[in-house]
Amino acid sequence: MTELLNEKYRDQLVTWIGKPCHFRLLYKISRDGCSAPTFHQKCDGQGATVTVLYNTNNTIYGGYLSQSWNSSGAYINDSNAFLFRLQYNGSSNPLKFPINQPTYAGYGVGGYGPSFGGGSDMNTFTGSVSSSGNYFPLNGNVSSIGSYYSLNGQNSNSITNNNLQVTDLEVYQVKDGSDPNRTKMAESSLLDKPWRKFSEFNAETANKLKEELVDYGPDSETGVTAANVLLIGQIGAGKSSFFNSVNSIFRGKITSKARSGNFEHSLTTVYRKYSIKDHNSGQNLKIRLCDTRGLEEEFTIDSQEISYILDGNVPDRYQFNPSSPFTTETFGFIRNPNLEDRIHCVAFVVDGSTIDVIPEKILKQMKAMQSRMNQRNIPQVVYLTKLDKVCPMVEEDAGHMFHSSAVREAVDKIADVMGLPRGFVLPIKNYESETTLNQNIDILILKALKQTADFADDYMEEQVEKLAAEYGRERKEKE
């Protein structure tokens, strides 16, 4: 199952904690069950943690402890502890509530879930709680909130809606991003030899890849003017960000043409065939990146709708409607698509830091799509993103990508999950927090795009050969 805490709220928590840090999911009730013993088994002795609750009123709140949880039955003394609200009734509205009596920061008892404050300011649950449909009715309470934490004019209702019916509760370990031991460990995990043969990370490589892509074009025999690459991925994986990153490289500056970011639902609501213009030559690349809705657990993409996209029946700028799937009767339906209209290669965009917790519903959707792609012999690749979260050395320099054992492990895992050869998994880093272009990030993205175009060529050539064979058989039958 995927982590719910998005990048924006992680950054806010890092600001409040006051030092560089990273988050690692320890406990999640929708995955591990809502059980106090399980919480303590997974979270005791893990150092600093952030507990996050997501309630049915679309409000997100929780608490931070810089000390470890335990099962001793004693209060936890922590002058750095605080409660927080990140979102209220669906609207982002971050507030921090510092502790005013450090001795009562938290309560470490084996029979309790995460509990903050001596007066149980925020007592999440005790024992075990079963789900009730789509939520867990937690048996704790938040009515005493403010006993040991300063609320700065807020109250239990304005922080939590007085609602302990939660769709999920997560506990994250907070790992110090400035810890020299952590950096030393990461450096020791860098391999002496790259685990994949790759071009040098230098200006010559970057320029050569750009030139190859600018000069690229499908074989004239195919009758296709540009390769269509369909981007598919879970919301927040970096699908639209990939297009923005490619567009930035060829524009020579950071751009944001496609809507991107971490939100509860997909930002992509329109099917788009994006063209990419090279700023230097003034010409469009003969590759189109086709963006579709992000995959969500709640909204399953209609499998027939995907078939129509693959076959070229869906027009550019079609407005998706989850309650009314695309059909042959939908306005704009392309009835006789040719090879130019079809998808020539599919790129699954996957967050490399969450491979182990991809929701089962998302995996089923991807597998169903793969089945339809395989029926059509459409090649598939994986763009593995956010690997800077997997390896701190990649965060420092994307050029370390193919020397990182952690990245290699992530590539192996997703290759197994998707049933694709490892060479079809392409590690990249999108432009997300950067404000200027970076040569090594460019090289990874350009190389992935070039390999995707090569696979698209293979598909188009196969289709031309298939048509030629069918034409030959028809002629023989007529003779």
Give keywords:
479 residues, 23% strand, Rossmann fold, seven-stranded mixed sheet, seven-stranded antiparallel sheet, alpha+beta, 12 helices
Rounded average pLDDT: 88
CATH class of the largest domain: Alpha Beta
Taken together, the total number of domains comes to 2
Shape field: elongated
- Main sheet specs: 7 strands, antiparallel
Any overview of this molecule?
- With 479 residues, the chain is of the alpha+beta class.
- It folds into 2 domains: 7-178, no CATH class; 187-478, Rossmann fold (3-Layer(aba) Sandwich), CATH 3.40.50.300.
- 31% of the residues lie in helices and 23% in strands.
- It has 12 helices and 20 strands.
- It has helices at 7-17, 29-32, 36-43, 156-160, 180-188, 203-215, 239-251, 303-311, 360-375, 392-396, 405-418, 439-478, and strands spanning 21-28, 34-35, 49-55, 60-65, 72-76, 82-88, 91-98, 106-109, 115-116, 122-123, 128-129, 136-137, 165-176, 227-233, 270-277, 284-291, 318-319, 345-351, 380-385, 425-427.
- The strands form 5 sheets. Strands 1, 3, 4, 6, 7, 12 and 13 form a 7-stranded antiparallel β-sheet that branches. Strands 17-15-16-14-18-19-20 form a 7-stranded mixed β-sheet, with helices on both faces. Strands 2-11 form a two-stranded antiparallel ribbon.
- The longest helix is centred in the last third of the chain and has 40 residues, at 439-478.
- It is elongated.
